[in-house]
Amino acid sequence: MPYSERVRKNLEFWTKDSYFDPETRAEILSLTDPREIEDRLARDLEFGTGGMRGKLGAGTNRMNVYVVRKLTQGLADAILAEGGAAAKRGVVISCDSRRFSSEFARETALVLGTNGIRAFLFDALRPTPELSFAVRHLGAAAGVMVTASHNPKEYNGYKVYWSDGAQLAPEKAAAIADAIGAREDWRVPVRPEAELRAAGLLTDAGGEIDAAYLAAVRAQLLHPELAAAEGGKLSVVFTPLHGAGAVPVQRVLALAGFSRVFTVPEQEKPDGDFPTVPVPNPEDGAAFALARRHGDEQNADLLLATDPDSDRLGVCGRDSGGRWRLFTGNQAGVLLEYYILSSRVDLGLLPADGRVIKSIVSSALAVKIAESFGVACVETPVGFKFIGEQIHLMEETGQGSFIFGFEESLGYLTGTYARDKDAVLAAALMAEAALYFKLRAGKTLTDVLEEIYGKWGYFLDDQVAYSFTDFDGAAKMDSVMRALRGDTRPALGGVPVASREDFAEGESRLADGGTRALDFPRMNLLRFSLAGGGFVMARPSGTEPKIRFYFCVAGPDRAGAEAGLAAVRDDFFRPYAEVLTPGGKPFRK
Prior knowledge:
This protein is of the alpha/beta class.
């Protein structure tokens, strides 16, 4: 197979230049599959608004020390462009339990220090929300979290946070990407660690930040006196899934007064191979297999699971028959929303200008709950950084008080101490909610969820994605979106379509033929709003060859909602079977 000029140059450089260590050169030399060589060396791993993520390995299109160095040099250039004060404020660096996470975090610190930028390096793995908190707590210019979240073990990644503690806004991400792209030379110099420490450019972070972070988390609890007095009446089984959540979640639950917390021993210790789960994703029911077994043995009330960087929380509760029920991210989100809002009303702590924030693809039920409490519900693009952006905007303008934010992919936050989703906080709040409803009302979380459905409508949600991996996958994705933009069916599965929103055009077309402008950022997103408050959405991924379809359908009861969801979903896909089936592989999230 003839290689492109770029591949030939990279092959020569990565196998012969002394900048690369012998193991890296040997790994490239050992490759025999031309397609693998092309994949590793034909392009650079892309830095986007979410940072960078990729498979581990040698090459320009893999996560490795040399890619991390080049990326960090781009970050350093962006910080130095802000002036000397930003360099003195420094960058906080943390990592999760994945393979090479600690090495990548250290290399990040060395590159920053070599550029005269102070680096605060956590002495061991810490959760992503603590990194967000630490940036704000230390007044740092930026933060770096080495993680690939809940992706398979073959991956690692690098997320960048700015001075407000939120993930990068698009313009900041673009500036860093430009700085990375402008640097043609891969050879990024680094000074010895001892020199940087002696110069005060590399400092350990740890205990003081841990204490401040846990105090900030505990300050968000609504009934601390209840857990302090009777926390032993709730039995919890917790699994960190081999990740960074083990220590902080156990600490915050213990400090709150939950004395009957059993941590799954097979999954307690950090392990980047994640040997006990197919993928370390608490959205996946298989990740709860061991927790369910121990939950039955312990006669537990609640199962909690955090992902490797502990920003997402999965929850299982008992149903009326005593069986375990895995809550979707939407169900857990509305449970927390209802608990927080109702508790604030009871405590006299609900602000007149309170706001709940959710991603646009999250359950429409959240809007109904918020409105019933006299609270505005703000919708944002997908990604928790946009929720953080709204918090910042409220603080900057003095208009609105943040109460709770969530996204359907298991991300939750209350309080303004951080700007990213926090599974440590969510674990404590969910345990407190379960204890509160158990002792004050004799109800399980499943009972409360059924009550919520009874009050505001039985909303069920689903997500289906199609991946397009063929050589013409991008063209097929475009053809699907074009077809959807021309879809004018008056109903889906027997449910009338109230309006069609095209967020790329910024326009909503109403069922009566009228139009209205959308007050929302322009993006490649389509929404079919259904009568009764549900929706169907189509969102192409910006980083993967996938289109994600989101469904939210309401019904009078569970049976009706399940039937309605199935009917809407099946009817929606029917005209596109020929386009989707050959070029796309459907899968559940």
